[in-house]
Amino acid sequence: MTLGVCYFPEHWPSERWETDVAQMADAGLEYVRMAEFSWARIEPERGEFDFDWLDEAIELVGDHGMQAVLCTPTATPPKWLVDEHPDVRQADADGTPREWGSRRFTCFNSPTYREETERIVRKVTERYADNPHVAGWQADNEYGCHRTVRCYCDDCAAAFREWLEAKYGDVDALNEAWGNTFWSQQYPDFEAVDLPGPTPAEHHPSRLLDYYRFANDSVVEYNRLHADLIRAANDEWFVTHNFMGDFPTLDAYSLADDLDFLGWDSYPTGFVQDRQPGDPTTDELRAGDPDEIGLNHDIYRGPATPFWVLEQQPGDVNWPPHAPQPGDGAMRLWAHHAVAHGADAVLYFRWRRCRQGQEQYHAGLRKQDGSPDKGYRDAAATAPELFDLDPVDAPVALLHDYESLWATDIQPHSPDWHYWSHLRAYYDALRERGVQVDVVPPSADLDGYAAVVAPTLYLAGEALAGRLTDYVASGGHLLLGARTGEKDPYNQLHETLAPGPLADLAGVRVSRHESLPAQFDTRVGYDGETYDYQTWAGWLDPDAAETRGRYRSGEAAEEPAVAHNRVGEGSVTTVGCWPGEDLAGALVADLLDAAGVDHADPLPDGVRLAHRDGYTWVTNFTSEPVSLDVPGDASFLVGGDTVDAFDVAVVEAAVEDVREDI
User: Which residue in 30, 36, 43, 311 is the catalytic one?
Assistant: First the structure.
């Protein structure tokens, strides 16, 4: 486990580089990530290359005992290239080209840009193929950032038609799969299919879903181009990419096969402002939400696979609505929190606050004058506290499906429906009990998990139903959440009632559903207690299943809301509503007990436990200290039995043995 930093030597006089790199080494940093936005510096004119500056920076990094992580520079092509080939630009839905002058404006399907990508990536990777100081590469930078996964240019239109023809074979099959008799939307041939531009009413949901899939596949192909070129130059390099938090338009799992591990960019105080509904608390504005960050750690970790935080917030940042200073110690807290969730490296973004361009109000570990900011002090304090660890061993899987996210975004059926928040109702309940969670796609191998939580498997087919049935029959315990099995993989309602092909496994059908605004009284009785729910209510009609909970308010009163079905050696719990915090906690606790998963008593809100390789991390994301009760023979590696505001402790103890000392 190591720390690193992102550095832009091209932004500073070369006379300063030696000092900068020496200070990185003094802080205990081990990786220096460079060059992701440097194409114009590397190739100021077509065919005229200048690598001397980067050679010097890499050599300095190696001389100080660190390693360089280089990035392919394709997120920001130079002006001369765009002037030569304006066709490389993306287009908005109304056909307006996206202009040069920012970043991420090029089309993944542009044949010209793919040729230019191959040319520059081959040049830079071959340049450093034998350099001992280069550990590996990040492909490009933040695919899809600034709403750029989906492009509407002519190249994308042609590629979409080819994609559809390859998928469906003939246009009659496409018309049938999409249900194009509705509103006379049949196509006579594939050439008639256009991209979904502006319309007076909503688009056909099946057409939109396939367009979203196509756009995602376009990024997969573009990333594979990078990965193949990097490995061709040196197959001992690692290849990764920096994904983003709660990012809705790109299926990170679909890129995983072409990468050695996934990375992501963690900005806790920004995410609580622009990634979830509602207003953040004061503590969240200082340190973020541990479960929002943790969910993304676990998405990008995958089962027992290390991940990297390729950009870690170093202080105040420029892009959210507000930029409060993080709480004292927050940058150290975030690094430990990432380690607890399985990170093998955390790289702070950036080294120094930049003096020019769009990110002048984005902090660095050091200020623009080179003096240390508090992020530098946090990094220096964290580095000696880190040690090598085995991967996370999670007993529970949470199924996260990007295609179900896309489909419910297309037809949310309520302005309050929010896929990520519904997912996190269950994730947060697991994490407040200290349970490690693998967040995986529905296609993942579920063998070895004691329990599986599937909050919204909105799109469900026979293959998925078969795999989940096999999992439960062999002794697994499954929880199915609201809106599961409403649609087939083509985004059409099933001929049978939800949960469609999962009905036999669940032992229920959904007889009715309703979406409710906040002013409705929404209560559920479960296990002798009454709880709140929100937004969505599916009225269950049990067949083989036993009713475990009933609605206690409104039109749904006394209708079944929670049902339990025994199948083989395992069980299935079906929840028809979006549970409030307390109900989610009760449902998850019962699931864990049924599956025999050890778990802790919840600590105060904002304080989390995580177990990795024999050690338990206690991370306090609040402004109040918390006192711990641990076994007498437990030893602390970091901190002690009082965890201060925005602080961390690491204790050699089982997670269920760490409690609040009240």
Answer: 311
